[in-house]
Each structure stands twice: as structure tokens, then as C-alpha cells.
Amino acid sequence: MGAPQKAHGEAWKDPPYCRDESDMDDSDDDTSDGDGKLVLAKWTSLIRHIINVHRHPDPLHPACEHGNVPDRLWLEEGTETFRKLEAILMAPNLLRDIPFLSPKEQTFGLESFHAVLIHFAPKSSKFQYDGMLARTYIAALHYNQNAGRDVLLDEDGSPKFYQRCSKAQKRWTLAPVKESVTYGKPHNIQHI
Q1: Nearest to 30 by CA among 134, 103, 97
Q2: How do the domains of the chain map onto residue ranges?
Q3: Average of per-residue pLDDT across 7-16
Q4: Which residue intervals are annotated with compositional bias (Acidic residues) in the record (predicted)?
Q5: Rg of the chain's alpha carbons, rounded to an integer?
Q6: What gap in Å lies between CA 142 and CA 119, rounded to an integer?
Q7: 50 contacts 56 by C-beta, under 8 angstroms
């Protein structure tokens, strides 16, 4: 899939961070390939890595994949800092969810909210704390009201799509064309 065509027939230039899919290889795929057990093995090896132990008891991930690590200060096992970090990284609720992490970055929603926030509170303007807080609330309400918009359909009933360049994947992807945003009063506002 190359660059999309303009109405006049000339091609848009790819943004510098986008590549044509024909140039893609599998080298940027995640090393776990979506295998939840491997993701968990790599996560649990992190607590050993921070104390400069790079061999691990789990056969799915027996050693860190980095090369030689330069000399640096490492955490020491048993210190208060280590115990606090271990309590966070090895929390049972977190370990239960780690195998279900997406193998690819999911930033589209965050990028969309950031664009809405910039619309209501431009970086080029200075606001007092209360003004910025109010603008952030308004941006959040606007985003939440418009986040679940329906996808527009073609005449034949199939969903409409447009091409956009994904910065995360460095390639063109298809995104659904959604209904227009509403700027009316939000419905069902509960106490903030």
C-alpha cells in the first residue's frame, strides 16, 4: 500500500516517519509475538535485571536479550528500595493482567484525547490553575461524549475507512470514518 492519492491524481508525500508496507520487515515486531506466558516471564525477570542478575530460572526467558551492560549502580537485593519496587512490580493483581497486554502499542486514544485537550487549552496560551483545570474538565467531557461515535457506512452498508499514517507502526493503516463530533451540552453528567 503506497501513499494515498489526492483528488487531482498526484500522490501525497509520505510523512518522514512512514514507510511503504513493501519496505517493511518483521524486525520491529514485538519479541514476545503476543505469547502471554513469555510476556509474563520477561516481566518477572525485570526484578532480577535491576539487581544485575541477567540469567533467569524461567525456561521461557532464561536470559536477558541485551548485550554487555556497562558498569553502573544497581539496586541491591533486600534493601528497602528493592522491596518497595518488588512489591509494585510483583503485585498479584498486576501479574494476573500482564499476560493479556497487547503486543503492540495502543496510543491512538491517548493521542486523540491530547488533541482535544490542546484544542481547549492551547500550549501557546497561559492559564491560571483553576482555568486550566476547568479546561481539562471540559476537554474530558467533550472527549467522553464523542469517544463512542458510530462508524459511517457506504451506500452498500459497508463501513467507510480512510488511510492515516501510524507513527507507532511507521506505516499507513486504515482508520474508520466516524460520525461528526457534537459540541452540544453533555448528557447524563454526574457529580465530578
Answers
A1: 103
A2: 30-100, 105-176
A3: 48
A4: 22-33
A5: 23
A6: 11
A7: no
